[in-house]
Every structure is written in C-alpha cells, then in structure tokens.
Amino acid sequence: MKIKSICCIGAGYVGGPTMSVIAQKNPNIKVTVVDLNSKRIADWNSKDLTKLPIYEPGLDEVVAEARGRNLFFSTEVDAAIVDAEMIFISVNTPTKTYGAGKGMAADLKYVELCARQIAKVSITDKIVVEKSTLPVKTAEAIQNILDNTGNGVDFQILSNPEFLAEGTAMRDLAIPDRVLIGGDSNTKKGQKAIQALVDVYRSWVPKENILTTNIWSSELSKLTANAFLAQRVSSINSLSELCEATGANVQEVAKAIGMDSRIGPKFLQASVGFGGSCFQKDILNLVYIAKSLGLNEVADYWHQVILMNNHQRDRFAKNIIKTLYSTVNGKTIAFLGWAFKKDTNDTRESAAIYVADLLMDEQATIKVYDPKVNATQMQSDLNYLNSRSEDKNVAYLKTESNPYMAMEGAHAIAVLTEWDEFKTYDWQRIYNSMQKPAFVFDGRNVLDREVLEKIGFEYKEIGS
Ligand code: UDX
Ligand code: UDX
Fold first, then answer.
1. Which H or E run includes 5?
2. Which residues form the catalytic set?
3. pLDDT of 390-435, one tens digit each?
C-alpha cells in the first residue's frame, strides 16, 4: 500500500518542519497540515518566508520548494482528515496544571480530542500516527476511542516519535540517526500499516536507520531518550558546582571525560540549566508513570534530574545577587538571550524566564535582548509563572531590539542563550557604556574570558 495523502493535526515546532520535509522528499504524496489556530496557519501560508510562525534555519527553503505543490496548510481539519489515508497527531501535550497528576502527568486532552474528531468524520480506513510524545500505553486509549466512537472503519495505530532538536531540526530530519516506528506486527493489518510508514521515510532515509518496534517500546524510547540527554546535562551541571568549590574547571573536566569513547563528548556543556518543551515535561511524565506503578526508587532517581536543573537556575540567579553586593534592588541586569537555546524562537521552559523571575523578586530591572524573541512573548512567559501582576512584569522587564541599548547603563550582563552573534559584539564599547565594576555572568560559557578580562570586565562563568 503506497500512501498518497497525509494529514497532520498540529502545525507546531514538530508538525510544521516534519511535514515540510516529508512533503519535500515525497512529491507524490499530498501533505496537509491543519491547526485550530488560524493565525498560525495564516503565518505558515505567508508569502514572506520570514513570517513563518517558527524560526528554524533552512525551513524557509523547504517550505518554498514544497508549499502549494504537495504541501498545504489549512484550518479545514475535517476535510483534511476525510481526505487522508494516514493522519499524524502532532498536537501539544503539556504537563497537567490541574487535577490528578498536576505538575507531573502529560495532559492528553488535545490528543483525545483529535482521536474523537478522527473517529467522527472518517469514512474510510485510516492509519493514525502518534507524533506527539505520549505516556506509555496511550496508543491503547486512542485505539479504544477510535474503535468505539468510529463509523466502523478500520484504524491502525502507529507510534512514530520525533527526535528532532530545535535549531537543527532540518538537518535532524534530513539525516536522522534513526526513525523509530512502533506498531502491531502480530496482525496483517498492523504489518501493512508499519510498512506504509516505512515507505514514506524510505524516500530519503536508509533502511538501516529505520527501526521498527512494538508500540510500547516506541512510546517509552522517546521519553527515555530525552531523560538520558537531560540527565547528562544535569550530571555536568552538578559537577559545575563542585568545580567552583574546588578550583577545578568544568570545561576541562568535560573534555577529559568526553574523550573516553564510552562517554562521548556531546551534551556535556555546563549551563544555567536545560530548557525546552521536552526535557522537563518528558521526565516528569516518566516519573509519574513510575510512581503510578509503585516504582518509587525509579521515580526518585529520574526526579533528581529535574531538581538539579531547578537548583542550577536558582544558583545562577543567587550568584548574581550575591556578587552585586547582595542587593539588586534598583539595579539593571541586561540579559543576552531569552530563547531556551540558540537558533530558535522557542522559549518554553527557558532558564531565562526563571532567572528573570528570581531577580525581579529582588526588584531588579531586567533589559532583554534576543535576536528572535519579541516583547509579547517574554511578557507572556512571565505571566504564565503567575509570580506578580502583569503590570509589574511590564514595569520590571523591558525588551530591547538593539543589544547595545540593552546593556547601556547596566550593572551586569547575564548570558542566557548561546547565540553566536554575542561573540561578535564590540565589547569595549559595551564596557564603556556600563556601570562599574561591570560584571558578566556567562550562563552558557560562550564568551572569551581573556578578551573580557583584558577590557576590565569581572567575568564569571559556570563551573570555574
Ligand atoms: C510537539 C509534540 O507534539 C509534543 O508532544 C512534543 O513533546 C513536543 O513537540 P510542538 O509541535 O512543539 O509539540 O507543540 P506546538 O508548537 O505547541 O504545536 C502544537 C500545535 O497543535 C499548535 O499549533 C496548536 O494550535 C495545535 N493544536 C493543538 C491543534 O491544532 N488542535 C488541538 O486540539 C490542540
Ligand atoms: C530535545 C532532544 O534533543 C530531541 O531529540 C527531542 O526530540 C526534543 O528534545 P530540544 O529540546 O530541541 O531537543 O533541544 P536540545 O538540543 O536537546 O537542548 C535542550 C536543552 O539542554 C537546551 O536548553 C540546551 O541549551 C541544554 N543543553 C544541551 C545544555 O545545557 N548543555 C548541553 O550540553 C546540551
């Protein structure tokens, strides 16, 4: 069975880029990405490619190539479902903010709504693919809903988690380490569904990089891949504090242990803490699943990864306060970066939000410059924390569209994102415009200590 028509529900950071690449590599498949958010869809359809709703290097070229040919963005959800043989569910699954599992479990409200909608309008057989990261056994729930509320058509469920990292999404999609497809290989229909999805990827991914498993292994692998990655960051961050206390240098330690080929060099960059839509959510989800199964030691083990991350953010903010003579009241701290990492405009769970919040509790003024994040987004991130009134957030946190303006007159600079352009600034000019002593707190260890110290800055980095 060769798929001719695909629909993806959810035009976000995962659905948008993934479907763009699937469409680019499969010109014979019609790919329609739908979303309830009509503004988002309008932005995806924007003629001006700099207006695409998400910033991802290289995405504009792929959209330019495929959009209007076999890639479509639409708000007509029902029509796209009816038309498609294969439907990807790529809606968000945030951590629950209410009820049982509050602050831990994934909120599956949107996924369930999608399943119900698919069941309601489908009049032909469908393959339904879970793209969203979901707790183990969600596929069973989706299958139940589809079978019990559908019109008697056949639904095959597959799990196909996404491993793309933001900022490198296009490369991760074009040459993935692996594509994981979970399905029911015990039935003929299950096997056919798996093969249909394998064929979609085979247009550009070598056979040996496509891994098929049972559906539960696939769901669990996504959660645990992120948990392992986050654990490495928390491990190196825990050592950063130890390094600061002993005179060791965490970058030297990271290099030394990373050269052990069993450990490897990646994800050993000490930082102010990991952010992003996935790490925290997926670990909390894993912890919640372990707890629900009565596996308390397993739950505590993974929960520590989160606690370490919270501690690292706190420690960074407290170090700024302590260094600035234990008061930041009335002082201005310039932030370089607000996004959770470079090359993305995504700010979900970004360390910058939490550091800003702690400094604002101490009544500091924050002036932020980020090359891709606007003031509205920053304010909405702060308001989401609910720590103070929206008016106060506006009063204490200013956004600057020019980095030099953000740093002019500031008492200290905090680097929260590792954007490459920060290294290219005229640091002498910045020094001249600041209050003295001029402090730099490099939460990403990206600036050059030697250069800054020569100019006269007090330079503090993580882990030395
Ligand atoms: C994805 C995955 O879905 C999530 O499980 C994973 O852990 C992180 O990445 P992402 O693409 O980053 O989420 O989320 P987001 O950018 O919020 O996009 C989701 C889109 O789905 C939004 O545009 C939202 O409007 C849309 N949506 C949500 C619907 O169209 N229908 C719904 O019922 C809910
Ligand atoms: C992650 C996974 O990498 C990806 O496979 C999955 O599909 C989604 O979640 P993403 O959240 O986009 O991707 O970013 P990632 O590059 O993993 O970085 C996560 C956070 O860890 C960032 O805040 C980053 O700055 C931080 N980090 C990463 C460090 O602090 N140190 C490191 O060495 C690596």
1. strand 5-9
2. 162, 222, 278
3. 999 999 999 999 999 999 999 999 999 999 999 999 999 999 999 9
